[in-house]
Amino acid sequence: MRVLVTGGSGFVGQRLCRRLAEAGHRPLVVSREPEQVRDWLPKGADIRRSVLDFIDTPPEAIVNLAGESIAARRWSDDQKEKLIDSRVNITQDLVILCEQLQSTGGKAPRVMVSASAMGYYGDQGDEEVTEETPAHDEFAHRLCKRWEDTARGVEAFDVRLAILRIGLVLDAGGGSLQKMLPPFKLGLGGRFGDGKQFMPWIHREDLVRSILFLIERDDLEGPFNGSAPRPVTNAKFTRTLARQLGRPAIFPVPAIVLETAFGEMSRLLLTGADMRPGRLLDAGFEFKFPTLEDALADILG
Prior knowledge:
Elements: E1 2-6, H1 11-22, E2 26-30, H2 34-37, E3 46-48, E4 61-64, H3 77-103, E5 111-117, E6 128-129, H4 139-151, E7 160-166, E8 168-170, H5 177-185, E9 198-199, E10 201-203, H6 204-216, E11 222-226, E12 232-233, H7 234-245, H8 255-262, H9 267-270, E13 274-275, H10 278-282, H11 292-300
Parallel strand pairs: 1-2, 1-4, 2-3, 4-5, 5-7, 6-13, 7-11, 8-10
Antiparallel strand pairs: 9-12
Helix pairs in contact: 1-6, 3-4, 7-11
């Protein structure tokens, strides 16, 4: 099966493309720098600069992961626009691809798994969050909602759409741990603010497995929470990480310091949601790393 992956050269996309190739599928990857990323991807991956370049090689499935890192820099008005555009524009291109394939007598993909994020729900305090939980209106929610609403355009072309609202992705070599590990290894880690905010997380391997699960299951559509079944508070996360590293975690970062340094973006660190993957579990998906202890033991080995 040909699977078109946007964001295929990213932290999650690279692992996904490898698993697709191992399963006998052919990854079709969108990248602005095809030659630069070729060595990062499995042999035989078809890498092109634009979604619409694949009009002559119709994908049978799409995985939409592309988007600028939400925590890359302070949220100025310009940065907010970049965050929205980097997600909405390429998602709209995927809708156009489906439209063009259908209008030229071809066949649109049968399924698209489109990324969203835990930020869809906004700050939920300590309330347990399912896929039906009403969102708290703030920038992260509005960003994710526009992303999801754009993705729903593929449904007009009989494409089954599954939206995966992803938590913090954990693994070696990137993701959420990349910036956290250096201070924790030095014994300089600690909670953010009061540490009571929830941190939904997922091991990268389980995230990739859940994407493949949603591609394969023709009966699954709509939103799914892409996080492990046992989220933890920030305080629990920092204690667990420090314990795995054999280091103390005694240097909390006061909320005022984060708010001063990052402005509105500090909400990513100081608020959260007790997000549970109810629909994935109900569908029979089994997590390889259900607890944070399991995940960190595998990653830090």
